[in-house]
Amino acid sequence: MGQTAGVDDPDELLGATVATGSEPESVLLPGHDVPLGRYTTVRRMLPLRRRRMVGAWCFVDHFGPEDVRDRPGMQVPPHPHTGLQTVTWLVEGEIVHRDSLGSDQAIRPGQLNLMTSGHGIAHSEQSPPEHPPGMHGLQLWVALPEGARHGQPRFEHHAALPVRREGAATVTVLVGRYGGLRSPARVHTPLLGVEFVFDGPGSLRPALDPGFEHGVLVVAGAATVAGTALERGSLLYLAPGRSDAPVEVSGGARVLLLGGEPFTEDLVMWWNFVGRSHEDIARARADWTAGRRFGGVVDCAHPPLPAPELPTVRLKARDRHGRSRPA
């Protein structure tokens, strides 16, 4: 999924600390709405000024639920990526992924698309002409570590993922390991992505790796997580040191748990690129503009998305807390 603006916009909100003292830090981070192309608005929950990442998760967009029965749905034209993985997860609808590797893959609810950009890939994401009436889902980015970010691009589609019943919830493991289940999705740092679907009132106490930091967001309904009321549109950050995170719901709800080892490499994130320096980003932009490196997206009639102009100041690397360093 492509962005229409940089990830360091000045209107990002800081969030509020909701638990301190003997408990590891937890921070409620409000997202903000971002237009995506002509037809879609997303709720962006990472990166924010106070919290840039959760593990290697560096970008979280929630779109819908939206009635698209008389609309084109998602229409994101070809655009480039470097230094990251994109993870697409649908609750409703259908999106067709096409890329410069030759992939042409529809994704539907319960399936996972994972695209690894490596040194460079281009893709498009579009609802087909005959699409379901609703559209609702998530797209997330995972920062690639130094040892993987210059590698070859690849694309994976997982039509089936590990699922089990745990107490009041149906659990699906998108990424990583949880409760003896392991996702087939290939990632490059210790990482976790788990969905909990509650059909009605109930509670659950997911076990956490104390070495991970975690983020929790509500995709549908509402929940109380680790004592904090959480509704759609915000992300609850949980610092390392926790062994569990109690979840309580009063009705049906869909909750996503993200986690991973704290990512220690400083990043420069701009437009659709993740690098380590201003020069990384400038080269990627120049290559995309000149038609180098990324290749063309197969069977897509839409023209490529043009890159915005670079800012007039040098882009600075930031750590996972949002602290900037000279690029």
From TrEMBL:
Gene3D superfamilies: Jelly Rolls
InterPro entries: Pirin (IPR012093), Pirin_C_dom (IPR008778), Pirin_N_dom (IPR003829), RmlC-like_jellyroll (IPR014710), RmlC_Cupin_sf (IPR011051)
Segments forming domain Pirin C-terminal: 204-292
Pirin N-terminal domain mapped to chain residues: 42-142
Cited Pfam families: Pirin, Pirin_C
PANTHER family in the record: PIRIN, PIRIN-RELATED
Family of the protein in this entry: Belongs to the pirin family.
Protein name: Pirin family protein
Source organism phylogeny: Bacteria, Bacillati, Actinomycetota, Actinomycetes, Pseudonocardiales
